[in-house]
Amino acid sequence: MRGVLRGLVSTTSHMTVVDLEAGLEHLSRGTARHVDTLLLIAEPYFKSLEAAQRSFALAKDLGISRIQMVANKIRSPRDEDTVREFAGRHAVTVAGVIPFDPAVVEADERGTAVMDQRPEATSVAAIRRLADQVLTAAP
Amino acid sequence: MGARTAPGSFREIVASSPPIRYAFEVSPMKIAIGGKGGSGKTTVAGTLARVLAERGQQVVALDDDSNPNLAVTLGLPHGQAASLPAIPRDWLEEKPDGEGGTRLELKVPAEDFIERFGQPVGQNLTLLVMGQPDHGGSG
Q: Is the ipTM here above 0.90?
């Protein structure tokens, strides 16, 4: 399917959001060439940040033009600092900070979308801000 | 412009033409979301896609995860998202992959493929789940 994915991403006139395979190993150079922004989601824990670090290296090697982090499941200012500091060390910007949100846990448990379950949820508000950031930041 | 613009001259034509829209100004944005399994990647991808669609963008959401769950975060009832059925052979062609082998590439325009196989989700949003039931998740 990599060829099909590449064909879709490269030639569609739609705005495109791709939920990638975890770890990026299956992302082909051909598809990566057409990705404008890669958002790497990371939690404020060592294993998550370590995985993000491997993904940066892969993504840079694939030539993706813009790589940004999104800090997720943030419970405290310290959590946020952990991710920001990590991003800073790798010269990557943080495009969004999403709080830990029980509404997401609940939606996952029920097999529903958090945006339907709790449209006013803090995580949804944070993702709206993330959308602003992604759409308006210059390449 | 200081110089005189003679009627019908090149200068006059340029001066009186509407502003040129370059391709990169109107090119739709391609966003990829990566992250360790469990990081919240799929929740972010799905919610982000819906936020963008809400704002009037025509969005295609592609689920390239081997554990496809994007449909749920888009608000599709559980079990309603279909994987791609077998793609008609004449929609694909074998092409050299630049590494001594060949790869199946999409032969038809992306929009045809999306129209045929995409699942509409509310307004402005279409989902494509990239895995195929007959394949072992490889591509």
A: yes
